[in-house]
Design a protein that fits this description.
The chain has 279 residues and is of the alpha/beta class. It has helices at residues 13-28, 42-50, 76-84, 95-109, 123-129, 147-150, 166-177, 191-200, 203-206, 219-231, 265-276; strands at residues 2-5, 32-35, 54-56, 66-69, 88-91, 114-117, 137-139, 155-160, 182-185, 209-213, 235-238, 254-259. Helix 10 links the parallel strand 10 and strand 11 (235-238). The mean pLDDT is 96.
C-alpha cells in the first residue's frame, strides 16, 4: 500500500508564527494566557497548557499578565477591555487575517456596508465583524443569502474568511452581482488555503482512500474533508491515530493523506505510521 502525503499538509505560516510567539513568550514570562484557542487543535492547546499558558474566555483585572491573541484574531473591543484590565498584549493574529481587518475598517470608514462570507460562529469571522462599528452581514453559503436585505443594498464591500472554500465564495459573489450594482470584492481566501484546496481537488481522484487529519473544531480541516468527500466517498476525517480503522484499507493500494493548517507534524507522522501498521 502506497501512502501519498500532500505537500501542503500541516501548519501554515500563520499558525507557525503564532506558536513561535507563544513559545518565546513562555520562556520570558511567568504570567501569561491566551484568548480562546491560539489555533484550533487540541494537541497544540494541551502543549500550551503544559508550558504554563492558560486559555481564558473572560477578562478580569490582571495587571502585568501577558495576553496572547489567537491566530484567528479578535474583535477590537476585546483588545480595549484587555488593556483596561491591565493585560499586556502579544498579537499572534495571522498577518493575512490582519489584512482582512484593515480592509473592512477602511471600507466601513467610507460607509460601505460589509458582507463577510464565512462561518457565523467561527472566531475569525467574529473578529472581522468586531473591527467595525456598523453591523456586518455574514453569509455562510448560497442557501444562506438574505435576499430581502441584499436587494436594499446599492454598494458593498465583500471579504471572505481566510479558510473558506474558494468555489463557494465565488458562487456567492456571482449571485450578489445580480442584485447589487457596486461590489468591491477582496479575495481574502489565503494562499495556504488555496494551495491545500487545489491539492484536495486532485488527490481524492488519484487515491482509493483519503485521510484528512485535524481537530474536529478546525474550519479549514472541515473544508478539506467536505471537498474530498464530494470527490471520493472513502474519505475519512481523523484527529488522532486511535481513530484510524484497519477496515478502511482492506484491499487498498493507494492512500492519500492531508492535514489542516493547525495540525502538528507529530500527529501527521503518528497517523501515517498507524496506517502503515495496518499492512
Amino acid at each position: 500500500m502506497k501512502i501519498n502525503l500532500a505537500k501542503s499538509a500541516g501548519f501554515c505560516f500563520g499558525v507557525k508564527r503564532a506558536l513561535e510567539l507563544a513559545q518565546k513568550a513562555s520562556h520570558r514570562h511567568k504570567r501569561l494566557c491566551v484568548w480562546g484557542e491560539i489555533v484550533h487543535n487540541q494537541e497544540v492547546m494541551q502543549r500550551l497548557g503544559q508550558a504554563g499558558i492558560k486559555k481564558i474566555n473572560r477578562l478580569k483585572p490582571n495587571p502585568g499578565t501577558i495576553l496572547i491573541l489567537p491566530a484567528h484574531g479578535v474583535a477590537l473591543n476585546i483588545i480595549e477591555q484587555a488593556k483596561q484590565c491591565g493585560y499586556r498584549i502579544i498579537d499572534a493574529t495571522c498577518p493575512m487575517v490582519k489584512q482582512i481587518h484593515k480592509i473592512v475598517r477602511d471600507a466601513d470608514r467610507k460607509d460601505y456596508p460589509i458582507i463577510i462570507i464565512g462561518d457565523k460562529r467561527h472566531t475569525e469571522v467574529k473578529g472581522i465583524k468586531g473591527q467595525i462599528k456598523n453591523k456586518a452581514l455574514i453569509i455562510e453559503n448560497e442557501k444562506d443569502i438574505p435576499f430581502k436585505k441584499i436587494k436594499r443594498l446599492k454598494r458593498v464591500c465583500v471579504v471572505a474568511q481566510s479558510t473558506q472554500n474558494l468555489e463557494t465564495v465565488l458562487k456567492i459573489l456571482d449571485i450578489l452581482k445580480l442584485y447589487i450594482k457596486e461590489i468591491k470584492f477582496f479575495n481574502t481566501v489565503c494562499q495556504p488555503t488555496r494551495i491545500k484546496q487545489t491539492e484536495i481537488r486532485k488527490m481524492p481522484l488519484e487515491n482509493e482512500v483519503m485521510i484528512i487529519i485535524g481537530s474536529k473544531n478546525s474550519a479549514n480541516t472541515r473544508r478539506l474533508y467536505e471537498i474530498s468527500k464530494s470527490l471520493n466517498k472513502k474519505s475519512f476525517w481523523v484527529s488522532a491515530k486511535e481513530e484510524v480503522k484497519p477496515a478502511w484499507f482492506k484491499g487498498i493500494k493507494k492512500v492519500g493523506v492531508t492535514a489542516g493548517a493547525s495540525t502538528p507534524q507529530s500527529t501527521i507522522e503518528e497517523i501515517i505510521q498507524s496506517i502503515k501498521n495496518v499492512q
